Amino acid sequence: MSASDEDDLLAAELALGLLDEDEAAAARERLRHDAAFAHAHARWQSYAAGLAADLGETPPAHVWSAIEARLPANDDLRTSRQLWRAGAIAAALVVLALGINDWRRVHGAPPPQPAPVMAQAAPPLVAVLSGKSGVVSVSYDPADGRLASVVSGVAAGRRAVELWVIPADGRPRSLGVLAQDRAGWRAVPARATQVLRSGVTLAVSLEPAGGSPTGLPTGPVILTGKLTTAG
Amino acid sequence: MAGSPDSALDTSLEHLLEAVAAGNRAAFEAVYRRTNVKLFGVALRILPERQEAEEVLQEVYLAVWRRAGAFDPARGTAMTWLITLARNRALDRLRASRRRPSDPIELAGDVPDPDPDAEQCALARDDATRVAWCMDRLDGDDARLIRTAFFEGASYADLASRAARPLGTIKSRIRRALIRLKECLA
Questions:
Q1: pLDDT tens digits for A94-137?
Q2: Which of A125, A220, B27, B140 is the most exposed place for a label (fewest CB within 10 A)?
Q3: In B, which residues are within 8 Å of A38 by CB distance?
Q4: What is the DSSP secondary-structure string of A177-202?
């Protein structure tokens, strides 16, 4: 069924914005229950979009950065950051305590004391990642290249909780899939150790079981936080 | 290679929007990479002030992130949806930030290309190319009036006042032009 010639013209006028406000409102109302009219309108919208054929200009790079910064996960972070700041130190201590217990369980001995010179050269780093729901605490000791994590309150379902570091170049590097129901230890992949510095952004995304198949986040980023020097 | 970051290049914009609706940020970035030049061109056509056009472009993509689920492939291509979204947001900004543009429209009385190559038009498969070709076949004044309506949010009444012609005259000449356009595009 196709619209009459008169209706087709009306659809064109609506798509191009030629109608005054009252006429346009009445025509838009018809879109909702007149399928032939809606079809004609869709076709004219496509033609109207064709008027942009000769338009095009590259926007500056900061537009994309601004868009990324305004995505919902980051909005949530901004409001929740103050809330979490107070809990950050306590959470980091929990991570470290759990980490040490884990180490004892695995190795049957207290962790070796790092040589003083190493400790001075690279202090441990901690981060508390927050967002809409849940929290992930992370500690990283450059002296041994290992990262400890605690995931709590993250409703991941059957998806994997994957940790990323996002350095200044904006290219996320995976730090691996995190254990969801317990404290976890992992060695940091060599390609990520160089960018694990104080001030760098960490993020957690939900990925298919086993982790992102592409090497980049494919699922929603649900938590973010910054790595800072412990103490 | 399936699943590689580059596979986004082979994925249709329609499928990418579907993934964006499911919260996929990689797909969102792919949509941006593929469409930002066109949409910034649209925003700049409507808002020549670059700062404003950049702000609108941000709003457009945030709306894409939030509302990708509202895209209905039965109602047209993803590109049409995105261009329409960008055009509407830019016009909203234009109306909110200042009075409507009121520059006079000079009707020059120029004539269309006397030698239309209908075969070339028939060969063009995408709407944009065919629309550009058919717009060139119109009387130059009519084409200008139609573009002004779409990109400046000018109604019949606005066009009549800016072109200093009676409303009825403007209305009937644009309607005639739309019928010619439709015949050319059919």
A1: 555 555 555 445 445 555 555 444 445 678 888 888 876 788 88
A2: B140
A3: 75
A4: EPPSSS-EEEEPPHHHHTT--TT-EE
